[in-house]
């Protein structure tokens, strides 16, 4: 079974190699590594691994923690496709779709960000929100108050926000959002059970949203 392991690793030569060695000892196959951010002497890495059927998921955590200075931020099952060019694929598809790209954003952004779902919204006035497209796994937003709309800048929306229903807080639904264009369109990404989105992920989403808006204005390919 595949898992997504998020680690905080000392940012020094050999640290990631030591983690790979420790995981290899328990029979774990590393499928991909993505560095999310670096700074203050540490790096945050998302590592997709394949765990043998006779091993428990906890063995991943135990193995990673044998490396001095390593912290395990989260571990969750991973079923998405492995694609190192996810952003390029998304922009290529958007170029083909032209102005009809909202459904593509909702469908493909969760793959880019290892998220659970995405929703494309339009809001020009408070309490007047239209869902333009939603990922099949997205929860219903009908009963959800979103006081942060209309959105003027990228925003992290952690699961402890007081505006969230109690059930959403219990499920630890982490979210982030970014404006797509000047017409009030925004994209909302979420995942249940963490990990919380980091600033580097938010900046990446904002960059992609801006590119998507530019591509949407081009004639379809």
UniProtKB/TrEMBL annotation:
Residue ranges annotated for the ACT domain, each copy included? 4-80
Q: Which InterPro entries match?
A: ACT-like_dom_sf, ACT_dom
Membrane-crossing segments per the record: none
Q: Which Gene3D superfamilies match?
A: 3.30.70.260
Q: In terms of domain of life, where is this protein from? A: Bacteria
Q: Where is the signal peptide?
A: none
Q: Which Pfam families match?
A: ACT
The name of this protein is: Amino acid-binding protein
- Please spell out the taxonomic lineage of the organism that makes this protein: Bacteria, Bacillati, Actinomycetota, Actinomycetes, Geodermatophilales
């Amino acid at each position: 079974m595949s898992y997504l392991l998020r680690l905080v690793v000392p940012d020094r030569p050999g640290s990631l190699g030591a983690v790979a060695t420790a995981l290899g000892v328990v029979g774990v196959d590393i499928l991909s590594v993505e560095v999310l951010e670096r700074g203050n002497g540490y790096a945050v890495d998302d590592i997709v691994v394949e765990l043998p059927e006779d091993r428990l998921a906890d063995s991943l955590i135990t193995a990673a923690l044998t490396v001095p200075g390593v912290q395990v931020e989260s571990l969750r099952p991973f079923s998405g496709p492995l694609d190192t060019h996810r952003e390029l694929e998304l922009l290529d598809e958007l170029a083909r779709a032209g102005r009809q790209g909202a459904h593509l954003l909702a469908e493909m952004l969760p793959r880019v960000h290892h998220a659970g779902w995405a929703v494309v919204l339009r809001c020009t006035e408070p309490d007047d929100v239209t869902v333009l497209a939603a990922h099949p796994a997205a929860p219903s937003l009908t009963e959800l108050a979103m006081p942060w709309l209309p959105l003027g800048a990228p925003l992290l929306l952690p699961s402890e926000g007081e505006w969230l229903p109690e059930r959403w807080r219990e499920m630890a639904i982490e979210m982030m959002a970014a404006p797509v264009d000047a017409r009030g369109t925004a994209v909302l990404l979420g995942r249940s059970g963490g990990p919380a989105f980091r600033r580097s992920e938010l900046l990446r989403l904002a960059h992609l949203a801006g590119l998507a808006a530019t591509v949407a204005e081009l004639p379809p390919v």
